[in-house]
Amino acid sequence: MLSPLDRKLLRDLWRVKGQATAIAAVIALGVMLLVMMDGLVNSLQETKDTYYERHRLADVFAPVKRAPDRVLDDLKAIPGVSAVVGRVNGAALIDLPAQEVPIRAQVVSLPRSGDPILNGYRLAEGRRIDSDRDNEVLLLKAFADARGLSPGDDLTATINGARRIYTIAGLAQSPEFVYTTPPGELAPDDARFAVLWMNKPALEALYDLDGAFNEAILALGRGAKLPAVLGQADRILRGYGGTGAYGLEDQVSNRFLSEEITSLRASSRGVPPIFLGVAAFLLNIVVSRMIQSERSQIGLLKAFGYGSAAVSAHYLKFILVIAVGGAVAGCLLGILAGVNVAGFYQTYYKFPFLLFRVDPAAFLVGILVSVAAASAGGIFVLRGVFVLAPATAMRPPVPADYSRSAGVVRALGRWLDQPSRMIARRLIRQPGKSVTAVLSIAAGMALSVAMLTLMSGFDRTVRVNFSLVDRSDVTVTFAEPLSRKAVHELQSIKGVVEVEPFRDVDVVLRNGLHAHRGAISGRVAEPRLNRAIDDGTNTIFLRRDGLILSEALAETLHIEPGETLTVEVREGRRPILRLPVIGVTEAFIGAPAYLQLDALNRVLGEPNRVSGSYLRTDSIYNDHIYRELKNSPAIAGVSLTDDTRASLRKLLDTGAGAMRYIMAAIAAIITFGIVYNSARIAFAEREQELASLRVMGFTRGEAAFVLLGELAVITFLALPIGSGLGYYLSHAVAAGFSTDLYRIPVMFDPASYGSAIIAVLIAAFLSGWVVKRDVDHLDMVAALKSRD
Amino acid sequence: MSRRPTARKNEAFVVNSVSRVFGAGHTAVHALRGVDLDIPESELVVLLGPSGSGKSTLLNILGGLDRPSEGTVHFFDRDLTAMSDVELTHYRRHDVGFVFQFYNLMPSLTARENVELVTEIADDPMSSGEALALVGLEERTDHFPAQLSGGEQQRVAIARAIAKRPTVVFCDEPTGALDSQTGQAVLRVLQDVNEETGATILIVTHAAATAAMADRVIDFADGQIRDVRINEHKVSAEEIEW
Ligand SMILES: Nc1ncnc2c1ncn2[C@@H]1O[C@H](COP(=O)(O)OP(=O)(O)O)[C@@H](O)[C@H]1O
Ligand SMILES: [Mg+2]
Question: pTM to 2 decimals?
Answer without folding.
Answer: 0.69
